[in-house]
Amino acid sequence: MAPTPVPQGAPHGADDRPVVLDRREGPHGEVVLRRHGDLLQIIANGCFLMDTSDGASERLLVRAALDELAGRQPPPAAPRLLIGGLGVGFSLAEAAADARWAGIEVVERERAVVDWHRAGPLAAHSAGALDDPRVTLVEADLLARLHESPARYDALCLDIDNGPDWTVTEDNDGLYSPAGLAACRAALREDGVLVVWSAQDSPTFPDRLRMAGFDRVRTEEVPVARGVPDVLFLASHQSASRSA
Description:
Residues 1-20 are annotated as: Disordered. Helices cover 25% and strands 30% of the residues. By secondary structure, the chain is of the alpha/beta class.
């Protein structure tokens, strides 16, 4: 899919134009942090990725995972969470604010994004979560991390692209393929849950999740101020012992 043109701001005044704060050329292309009024925006390869305008659905991404786990009988005693994508920090901040998570790992492949949170303008939005002793930051491609690490998680929350059908780079397509989703499932503990954030619905994605071995799949729409609702895809696999 061709990148969506980056919004250039309202035409009525120079003061309303976006201001580039940092621009990096990394192994996966160009990444830009810019300020537009009161908002901070991340642009990847010319495609608007996310901003700090709201974050409601990004926070719900983590809450939905915990709600799913809380409904298990019995619920996991010390749940571990893996977040794919640091972004502007809303999902990580939401997770770190909840004491029920025993461990939180966040995987981010862009060094620039990490720098913007460590000592840059995005630090306020991750709210010091990177300093939480439960949080581990891994700088890596998520799919590579899933294949290389033996770690297992109770929940895996993906907020890497604009959705499974709207990826920032072509190599991210593999994450949403049946094989990539099977790797996500393999990284989950028994009765763990995968939650995928998307800026729009994907009619074919639930079938891809089922092809990857998830037998419980559902979607939740999250209303937004303008445009189509954000969507959360929730998937889990009921173990034989639980289904008996």
